[in-house]
Write a structure and sequence with these properties.
By secondary structure, this protein is mainly alpha-helical. The protein is built from 12 helices and no strands. Helix 3 (about 50-65) crosses helix 4 (about 75-100), helix 5 (about 100-120) packs across helix 7 and helix 6 (about 125-135) packs across helix 7 (about 140-150). The chain is globular. The two termini are about 30 Å apart.
Length: about 240
């Protein structure tokens, strides 16, 4: 099994000369990491081989999108990316099994009504306001909101518009294999943030919104979101390094 530096060199070689031969060699170097991550998610109703395939496909996407000029080590970039893809795959499989078709339709209707209300009033609607808009009982709105909460992944592993996760943006240079341990530091650092700062990160890295979309939700400009995001990430990184 290659170490992080060797995997990084193989990824850089492919980035500089994107041939099929270099892609296959780089993928071969990162496959043990794919298997390691897949094993962490076994026992959840999905075959290990399927998880490995999802992880390998995520690794290929990461190799194709990796830019050495950004100064990020490949293992730091690819580890949370693979983890997020596998976790999302498990979440989607579970949702297909657990969420009845009728409930999924209600969730979509509620989401659309909420977005329209926010566009019109620049604030979050109450359950009663959503019920009035949808011509539902308030109890039905609350039940569907609870179902939406249950269906959401509790991770920060979704990628932003640049293909980066919150974990990868906060990782140190040697963070590839240590990314798993960094999560506890991240959780502790998040306690230093205020409600609005946490909401911004949730919109960007949990719901996967672009800066423009997050700005619309928060009543801010894209530039303000960009500056706030950089400030928050810097604060989190300092807290993680201090711990």
């Amino acid at each position: 099994m290659m170490n992080a530096n060797e995997i990084h060199e193989m990824a850089c070689r492919y980035a500089l000369a994107p041939t099929d031969e270099n892609l296959n060699a780089a993928l071969e170097s990162v496959l043990p990491l794919c298997h390691l991550i897949a094993r962490r998610f076994t026992g959840r109703g999905v075959d290990y081989e399927d998880l490995c395939q999802v992880a390998a496909m995520a690794a290929v996407d990461a190799l194709r999108g990796f830019d050495p000029a950004r100064g990020l080590k490949f293992t730091t970039f690819v580890t949370p990316t693979i983890t997020g893809k596998v976790r999302n795959y498990l979440r989607d499989k579970a949702e297909l099994v657990r969420t009845p078709r009728g409930l999924k339709e209600q969730m979509a209707q509620l989401h659309a009504a909420r977005e329209k209300f926010i566009d019109e009033h620049r604030r979050e609607p109450s359950a009663g306001e959503l019920a009035q808009r949808l011509n539902w009982e308030t109890g039905q709105v609350l039940e569907v909101l609870q179902a939406i909460d249950r269906s959401k992944t509790a991770s920060l592993s979704s990628t932003d518009e640049e293909g980066m996760t919150l974990e990868s943006r906060l990782s140190t240079e040697e963070g590839g294999y240590a990314a798993f341990e960094q999560r506890e530091d991240l959780k502790n650092a998040m306690r230093k943030l205020g409600a609005e700062e946490k909401k911004l990160l949730a919109l960007r890295f949990v719901q996967g919104m672009s800066q423009r979309e997050a700005a619309r939700m928060l009543g801010m400009s894209q530039m303000q979101v960009s500056r706030a995001e950089k400030r928050i990430l810097l604060l989190l990184k300092k807290e993680m390094e201090a711990s």
